[in-house]
Amino acid sequence: MLLLRFLLQISAIVSTARCAKPDHSYLSSAQQVHLTHLIGFEASASDGIRLKWAYYLSLLELNVQHMTNHAGLVIFDEPGQQAADPVNLTSLFQESANPRFSRHQILIATSEKELAIRQGLGERPYNLITFDGYILKPMGRA
């Protein structure tokens, strides 16, 4: 639930701050907001990945509440690859399946066990597509 708390804090900040993208960078900045105070200087690597998840979903949340130029699509490629705590990963899955995002698409490519995903999401609405083995395979010889 730490991710959910992070999402709520970041969403509140982004909703009230004036966000800008400098011309020289694709990194975002929130004017008049000091995120380092929110995160603290002792943020671990896992805090950093949760902050990125929260940031991406908060941009989508802005699109839910306001007219923005967001495409309505967020893609997470193997979020568990960052050695994320399974509880935090489940929180990401649960937040992504929130009905308020129903007119958006959140795609998560993961190698997590199917049973763990299904149990974590419970009755939330989601589509799960599974593949046996590797998705990308060498082409056979002609």
* Total domain count: 1
The proportion of strand residues reads 5-15%
Overall mean pLDDT? 74
**Major sheet summary line:** 2 strands, antiparallel
What does this structure look like?
Helices cover 42% and strands 11% of the residues. It has helices at 2-16, 35-39, 45-65, 86-96, 114-121, and strands at 18-20, 29-31, 73-77, 105-109. It is globular. The longest helix has 21 residues, at 45-65. The protein has five helices and four strands; from the N terminus they run αββααβαβα. Strand 1 (18-20) and strand 2 (29-31) form a beta hairpin. Helix 1 (2-16) packs across helix 3 (45-65). The strands form two sheets. A two-stranded antiparallel ribbon has the order 1-2. The protein has a two-stranded parallel sheet with strand order 3-4. The relative contact order is 0.14. It has one domain (2-121): Rossmann fold (3-Layer(aba) Sandwich). It is of the alpha+beta class and 142 residues long.
What structural keywords apply?
142 residues, alpha+beta, Rossmann fold, two-stranded antiparallel ribbon, two-stranded parallel ribbon, 4 strands, 42% helix, globular
Give a summary of the structure in a few sentences:
With 142 residues, the protein is an alpha+beta fold.
Topology:
Layout: H1 2-16, E1 18-20, E2 29-31, H2 35-39, H3 45-65, E3 73-77, H4 86-96, E4 105-109, H5 114-121
Parallel strand pairs: 3-4
Antiparallel strand pairs: 1-2
Helix pairs in contact: 1-3, 4-5
